Amino acid sequence: MQNRFTSFIKLTLTGGALLPLLLFVATATAEIQLIYPEPSSFVVSSRHLILKLGKGEISAVVVTVNGISSDPLPVGTPEYKRAFRDFLILQPMWDKGVNQLVVDLFSGDKKLETLKTEIYYSPLTGGDVPREFKRTSLHRPDAEAHCTPCHNMKPTQKQVLDVPDKDNACYGCHKRMGNQKFVHGPVSTYSCVLCHPLQSSPKYATAKKEPKLCFDCHKEKQAEFKSFKFLHGPIAADMCEVCHDPHSSENPDQLHQSVNRLCLSCHESVGKGVHAIALGDGSGHPISEKTDPSEKGKGRELSCISCHDPHGGKFRYYFITGNENKMELCQFCHKK
Predict the structure, then answer these.
(1) Residue 195 in contact with residue 212, Cβ under 8 Å?
(2) How would DSSP label each residue in 5-49?
(3) Burial category of 67 from C-beta neighbours within 10 Å (exposed 0-12, middle 13-18, buried 19 and up)
(4) Burial state string for 174-191 with b = 16 or more CB within 10 A and e = fewer than 16
(5) What span, in angstroms and rounded, lies between the C-alpha atoms of 14 and 318?
(6) What is the b/e burial string over 203-239, where b = at least 16 CB atoms within 10 angstroms of the residue's CB?
(7) How do residues 215-269 score in pLDDT, each as one tens digit?
(8) Which of 14, 81, 184, 210 is the most buried (most CB within 10 A)?
(9) Alpha-carbon gap, residue 290 to 267, rounded angstroms
(10) Which CATH number fits domain 2-151: 1.10.530.10, 3.30.470.20, 3.40.430.10, 2.60.40.10?
């Protein structure tokens, strides 16, 4: 965490973009304002923390998340002031659930004050959030008021649709959403408003919830899922984003993790015991570290999806052969 904060400061002072998330609370003495997330709120992703510092002689800020502290962040240097004025934007690693946030402000060696709050992190869904944590949004009128001196907070349809990155009103703050290896189509063409219309409440909320929004483009998947008798849990629960990042990812199909890590994050027992069949040496069928021998695999590494359709099927276990005959599944690769 210390290295993360240090790297961020070096990045911002050399012209890097302002990036995501940590947390702070307003105080009367230093007049600090936590712009996003709001105090005692919950977040479903680790992106932006925006803090407006007070007007006093603040030379450094130390941020502590769940007992782990950053190095002193030099927010009082002339170089920093020219670049970011009295704002601080950071990106920490949240733990799932309640996060204890402590921010210490310094003037030289003198601690000016300590700020505390709690933020609840509920990755992806926000479905398990206790009532005392409120929903928050960056695009609130009071928050956007701080952004308008430097950013266009009232873009036209043209300014957020199919516009090159340097002219796109969304790209200035959110370019990291599309800055990974595998990018979702609308993100790659800066067509943010296809999913986040300008006229919505709250502002820029998606027009529809998953999977209806996904099916607007992926109609073939909607038809495929309707043909299945058995649906994989996330699909049955209409939760596409449990597995897929809607913007970009380092993994094919914008998966949050590599195939096996993602599957085994729920199906832990599969990775610990003998799988599918006991071989002569007492081990099970491999699920990784081998090349997928099937024609469909096209030389990729063997993984869970080499045998199972991750969305569902007409029979139990979602075999990619389309039936429940286990021997036929074996012959899919082991042709005799």
Answers:
(1) no
(2) HHHHHHHHHTTPPP---------TTT--EEEESPTTEEESSS--E
(3) exposed
(4) bebbbeeeebbebbeebb
(5) 51
(6) bbeeeeebbebbbeeeeeeeeebeebebebebbeeeb
(7) 999 999 999 999 999 999 999 999 999 999 999 999 999 999 999 999 999 998 8
(8) 184
(9) 20
(10) 2.60.40.10
- The token pair at 119 is 């933020």
Backbone angles phi, psi at 194, to 5 degrees: -65, -30
The DSSP letter of residue 93 is P
Domain parsing of the chain, residue ranges: 2-151, 210-242+274-336
Model confidence pLDDT, tens digit, residues 51-70: 888 777 899 998 899 999 99
Q: What's the token pair of residue 315? A: 């029979």
Q: CA-CA distances (angstroms) from residue 73 to 59, 82, 124, 139?
A: 8, 15, 29, 26
Which amino acid type is present at position 266? Answer: C
Rounded distance between C-alpha atoms, residue 124 and residue 108, angstroms? 40
The CA–CA distances, whole Å, from 197 to 8, 31, 69, 238, 270 equal 31, 34, 39, 21, 42
